[in-house]
Amino acid sequence: MIDVDVIIKSINKLPPFPDVASRALQILDDPRASVDQVISVIQYDQAVTANVLKLCNSAYYGLRRKVHSLREGLVLLGNAELKSIILASTTVRLFQQENKGYDLAKGELWKHAVATGIISKIISDRVGASEHPSLFTAALLHDIGKVVLNSFVDRYFEQIIALVNEGELSFLEAESKMLGINHAEVGAKTGESWNFPGDIVQAIRLHHSPEEVLDDDPITPIIYLANIITLSMGIGVGRDGLSYRGKQEVLKHYGLKAKDLQEIVVDFYDQYSKVQDILKLS
Amino acid sequence: MDVIVGVADMKVSDDPSVTLVTHSLGSCIGLTVYDPVVKVGGMLHYMLPESQLDSNKARNNPWMFADTGIPILFKSCYKLGAVKGRMIVKVAGGSQVMDSSGVFNIGKRNYAALRKIFWRNNVLIDAEDIGGSVNRTMRLSIATGEVTLKISGQGNKIL
Q1: What is the rounded CA–CA span in Å between residue A70 and residue A21?
Q2: How many distinct structural domains can be found in chain A?
Q3: Rg (CA), chain A
Q4: Is residue A20 domain-resident?
Q5: A232 CB within 8 Å of a chain B CB
Q6: How far away is chain A from the Cα of B159, in angstroms, using its nearest Cα?
Q7: Considering the domain boundaries, does residue A188 fall inside one?
Q8: Are A99 and A206 in contact (CB under 8 A)?
Q9: How confident is the model over B41-65, as pLDDT tens digits?
Q10: Class of domain B2-158
Q11: Of A49, A87, B67, B103, most Cβ neighbours within 10 A?
């Protein structure tokens, strides 16, 4: 078995979290921060600025008027939403890359991320949860660990898939057995090293184990379900396939039944076509 | 030339240069029909078993559901000269996540709906690759009628 430390050290090989974004996030943590302070930091990063504008104007946020400038966007959105958007804007390029280990073509992991984000919102609305500002971003980021684990899964894929095929293990469990760590845990460690907010780190860490926090985490179990539905639909699914556990207790927790799942799929189909702009972020 | 059949979509063709392709068959079902005499084929990628779930949606996009999509696939091929008795029918998809309770098994329900419709209409399945926890890509060559699958974690195979 490979040394887990080698995998964790490889987190440092990812491009550093952009300075602009971490400074903007710091400012946004201060309730007394002014719009001008935030703008003064973000405006110098064109890619982040462009992505913030595109996200503000996407159907997801549903703002009534078109946002033309950073200032307008910042005024219309709350601090928490803005934090989310900045996080998504800065990490999208990692998700857009080809991922050989999981056999995902360029753009596929981002597609999976966006679909999970949309379904999270659909589920949240359906179960009457209030819109949590971290929900969409945590859903977008849930598989960030696959970006890090990519090369290790590539090297040990045959052994991992053999464990899945023989031992009734899920792909996540087989990753743990073969590599000593799985993509959820690696993703959480990546988030920690980039100072992501704690609720997003937790959602990444437990996105396949929501039963641990069913009663006291407002986003992780929803993201879990959204991910399972996205996987079921085969959206941005790699050679790990659908080999993840469907946990009935999470559905029960929200009072959802098989028919609800089908209705969520129908709602998703409608909304997915409206967010092609998010899919094109880079 | 690859012609993509999207999710909740259908395409038929009599152009021998065309290969119909559909990606992302998880719980969804990919259904191909092919008449080797006139070399007419079609592919349907449906998401859900029954249109009664949402009849408005079914009117706008009948390919979303098995019971509204399958009849249109056959009829569209007849219009290009295909004959029911000669049709070669192949099915792929219907997978599901690992779930002993069966609540998440949209894939199984999708396949059951197809079997019910085929049984009522005396249609036999010539080949199928169904279920499991894999993701599939399905291709149908209009020139030869050959159907190939790419299965996640397993590679390619001819169906």
Answers
A1: 14
A2: 1
A3: 18
A4: no
A5: yes
A6: 19
A7: yes
A8: no
A9: 999 999 999 999 999 999 999 999 9
A10: alpha beta
A11: A87
